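Amino acids appear as letters; backbone shape is given numerically. Here is one record.
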Amino acid sequence: MQVSSLNDVKIYSLSAGRSLPEWLSDRKKRALQKKDVDIRRRIELIQDFEMPTISTKIKVSRDGQYIMAVGTYKPRVRCFDTYQLSQKFERCLDSEVITFEILSDDYSKIVFLQCGRFVEFHSQHGHYYKTRIPKFGRDFSYHYPSCDLYFVGASSEVYRLNLEQGRFLNSLQTEASESNVCDINPVHFLFAMGTAEGKVECWDPRTRNRVGLLDCALSSVTADTEIEGLPSISALKFDGALNMAVGTSTGQVLLYDLRSSNPLIVKDHHYGLPIKSIQFQHQLDLIISADSRIIKMWNKDTGKIFTSMEPEHDINDVCLYPNSGMLMTANEAPKMNIYYIPVLGPAPKWCSFLDNLTEELEENPESTVYDDYKFVTRKDLENLGLAHLIGSSLLRAYMHGFFMDIRLYHKAKMMANPFAYEEYRREKIRQKIEETRAQRVQLKKLPKVNKELALKLIEEEGEEQQFSKKRKQKNLPSLLKDDRFKVMFENPDFQVDEQSEEFRLLNPLVSKISEKRKRKLKILEELEAQGQEEEEEPEGKASDAESSESSDDEKGWVEEVRKQRKLLRQEEKLKRQERLKEDQQTLLKPQFFEIKEGEEFRSFKDSAKKQKLMKKTLEDRLKLEEKLGTLNVSDTTVGSKQATFKLKKSEQQRKQQEAEKQHRQERKTLRRSASHLKSRRGRGRLFH
């Protein structure tokens, strides 16, 4: 039994471990159990709870005694008795089952919708009756008051089969081209169907009229979602009289109140896979939605994730055992998974020993699934020098990184940084010393990072405290003591760059203000070195002088901005001149290229154009030359084609034109360089 934990929610996988083949004899099975510890410790809650190849659907009868599952291959249905913890019967079918419904409290009345448009009825003894519907079906629901079966599928009609009269009734004509899913409300028996166009149509079975229409495809598109195609409805489930959950083919789940056309909440799985199943858990007000990769449990009021599970194989269906914390899944694998989550509810009566077992495990905690593994990103692997292991069995891809063995991680970290422990030890010692120093009489100590900003905040806090005392107001919390901004004064990456262009333009008075703060910083450093307490106001100019300076600064802020802009332009001009000087001093090394025999080199552009032209067909080349004017194709009176060619310029003329063009470019560059030198030096000559 494997135990995993997400958001402090324990999930027990009861089907973990190897399963023994059916064809083994009892003697060999006992021998394997004696030898293999994993087989001996595994929990087989229900004997042979599996399918030959895959399982597609799984349901529980209303009395909770029987669990029924369908799968392949060959197509079959298996019924498991929970009181006996074993399989009760198995029946093979003619074609694969799309979905099925248990009409009675036990297994005595079952309806199967099969691939070949067949609807098969089974009673307690076995096969009872078989009929066909006009179009291929995808889902059906049973209306208990009228004993009608509603079939939806690859048609705009909803077929009705009355089981009391034993005949088809008039079908419901919808506006949809195709329908994927349907459901009937258990309280007021409203019939709802999800269409391929992303809409949900609601019908009243009493009047056989449509009473509502929801455009879920439009509501599922939010600012955070990326959708490639039109979302269709892939799952539908009612909860009580007013709530309805809708799943789309693009991975969104929408929760509706039937009194409103707008969804209460939209939850995205972020996988882009169709939603396969939706279940409601009423004890904790949770919605359990599943696609083929993940099962998510989230609060239906806030949308906050409660927990999630990612099985090893793709999911086909999810079934929540009533009034318990047990969850069963049908997968793309022979074994059907069983999960027990104690937070959701107690264990069922037929396996009440699970509660005692989980309580013992919580008293004696063991290592969970992920305790022996370390999650690393691609950047961490590059820092450790293990990027070459991507794709191997030593790394398991998960979300935006990988899981690797914790022992391998520690070995690689020791080899990459052998002095990591010493640095960690020094840092711990430093923290202990700082903690002991905190108990002494503290001076006004500034942080190592952003000292000027911290001094500014301290001054502003002092002014605010004086102002609040006069007004008798409460003091606001300090940014220096706030944990949210603590890193800004500890991490050097957050150091304010006063030489940057943005800082100098947005703070035109920074130079004058910084000079005053720097004077105060020097005084504080001297006080700390001498071990003296800081005075309330350091020696210097009087407060009246400072106020007069601040008023002058406010008047001349425009001049300060102009001065800063002028300095920035001069610095940019100096940088351009330095780059030009470096370009002139650099010597270009010649590059040599090899030309094939029998070919004449013209230019790199001509060779590339020639290669592209040679790849084209004769028809495309003739059309291109006709557009350029070098070829003229016309019909003659006899019926044949006449082609007239214009010769291109001779090679000598073309070379002469290229030489003249290159000469003009060289003269232009020489004039530009000469003008730059004259402007910088005032005089000078240019030597080649």
The chain is about 30% helix and 30% strand. The chain has a mean pLDDT of 80. The longest helix spans residues 651-681.
